[in-house]
């Protein structure tokens, strides 16, 4: 598939982000999207064909692969990339709504349609919460589906129609595990960045509101 739409989305969101948000965009684009396109897709490209079991029983190999890999690592990674990037559309849509509203009324209704304040601030905070939630959900999903963040070289399968317990071998297990750990590390980094930006925005605007109230009281 073409990942151009995701690249354009991230580039568009970058215009409205804070400094921490721009770091998040850079991490997603360079360390996740580009790594996925350039390297990871090729490693998992023939994972089913390279999965081998020491039996000639028809159907055994397919059933064992489905048992140990209910969802391919690479497809789950792709879904994660899409899901954690989608909440950014909320910010893009909100800014577009502000700009269209000003055009429709033919007057300036906001100091700056792209400035993160008021309703746009709420939308931005919701997008950060959703992105963080999706990151955590997918990390838990990875852990539950594959019994940890590891890719064993050998798995033992006794699922029917296998005649008995058979040994199945996963190709490029070490290489896959390295990239799986890289995925987990970048996901954790993105969670930290999202929480940092969330804390920063809440603190910044809480302080701003407090100062406004303080000045009014002393006037």
Automatic annotation (TrEMBL):
A single GO BP: cell-cell signaling
GO CC annotation terms, alphabetical: connexin complex
Domain of life: Eukaryota
Membrane topology category: Multi-pass membrane protein
Membrane-spanning ranges: 21-39, 77-97, 118-143, 178-203
Connexin cysteine-rich domain location: 134-201
Record localization: Cell junction, Gap junction; Cell membrane
Gene Ontology terms, MF aspect: gap junction channel activity
Domain Connexin N-terminal per the UniProt entry, residue ranges: 42-75
Keyword line: Cell junction, Cell membrane, Gap junction, Membrane, Transmembrane, Transmembrane helix
InterPro entries according to UniProt: Connexin, Connexin_CCC, Connexin_CS, Connexin_N, Connexin_N_sf
SMART domains: CNX, Connexin_CCC
Keyword Protein biosynthesis annotated: no
One Pfam family from the record: Connexin
Protein's recorded name: CXB7 protein
Species name: Aegotheles bennettii
The gene coding this protein: Gjb7
């Amino acid at each position: 598939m073409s990942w151009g739409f995701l690249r354009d989305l991230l580039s568009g969101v970058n215009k409205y982000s804070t400094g921490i948000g721009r770091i998040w965009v850079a991490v997603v684009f360079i360390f996740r999207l580009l790594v996925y396109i350039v390297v990871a897709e090729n490693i998992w490209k023939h994972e089913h064909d390279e999965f081998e079991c020491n039996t000639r029983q028809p159907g055994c190999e397919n059933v064992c692969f489905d048992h140990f890999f209910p969802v391919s690592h690479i497809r789950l990674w792709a879904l994660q990339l899409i899901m954690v990037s989608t909440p950014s559309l909320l910010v893009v849509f909100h800014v577009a709504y502000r700009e269209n509203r000003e055009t429709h009324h033919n007057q300036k209704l906001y100091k700056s349609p792209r400035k993160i304040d008021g309703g746009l601030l709420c939308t931005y905070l919701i997008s950060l919460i959703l992105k963080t939630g999706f990151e955590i959900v997918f990390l838990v999903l990875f852990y539950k589906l594959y019994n940890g963040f590891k890719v064993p070289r050998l798995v033992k399968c006794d699922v029917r129609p296998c005649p008995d317990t058979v040994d199945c071998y996963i190709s490029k297990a070490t290489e896959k595990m390295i990239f799986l750990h890289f995925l987990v590390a970048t996901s954790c980094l993105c969670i930290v960045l999202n929480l940092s930006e969330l804390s920063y925005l809440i603190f910044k605007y809480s302080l701003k509101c407090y100062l406004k109230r303080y000045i009014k009281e002393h006037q």
